[in-house]
């Protein structure tokens, strides 16, 4: 798996997941349970990971929605 995008914004994370779900692109969110250690302050970014062979398709979907950037 390769990193597609990372974000600390939980609302944006949900939106990105919806975009990928609607396009039938499987993904995994890494680091989403780190908030237990950080007391929920959102300091650590969550990473959306996709299979390497789907990276171009996933990037295109996020670029079309103007959401292909890290924050």
Task: Give your account of this protein's structure.
With 71 residues, this protein is α+β, with helices and mostly antiparallel strands. It has one domain (2-64): Alpha-Beta Plaits (2-Layer Sandwich), CATH 3.30.70. 38% of the residues lie in helices and 21% in strands. It has a three-stranded antiparallel sheet, with helices on one face. The mean pLDDT is 92.
- Which architecture would the CATH scheme give at its second level? 2-Layer Sandwich
* Helix-strand pattern: EHEHEH
How many H/I helical runs? 3
Poorly predicted spans: none
Report how far apart the termini are: 20 Å
Helix content range = 25-40%
Largest sheet: 3 strands, antiparallel
Class from helix and strand fractions: alpha+beta
Roughly what fraction of the amino acids lie in strands?
15-25%
CATH topology: Alpha-Beta Plaits
Identify the overall geometry. globular
The whole-angstrom Rg is: 12 Å
Number of strands: 3
Q: How many domain modules?
A: 1
- The CATH homologous superfamily is termed UreE, C-terminal domain
The top level CATH class name:
Alpha Beta
């Amino acid at each position: 798996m390769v990193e597609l995008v990372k974000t600390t914004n939980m609302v944006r994370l949900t939106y990105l997941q919806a975009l990928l779900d609607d396009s039938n692109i499987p993904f995994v969110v890494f680091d989403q349970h780190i908030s237990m250690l950080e007391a929920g302050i959102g300091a650590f970014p969550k990473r959306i990971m996709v299979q390497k062979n789907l990276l171009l398709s996933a990037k295109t979907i996020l670029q079309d929605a103007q959401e292909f950037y890290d924050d």
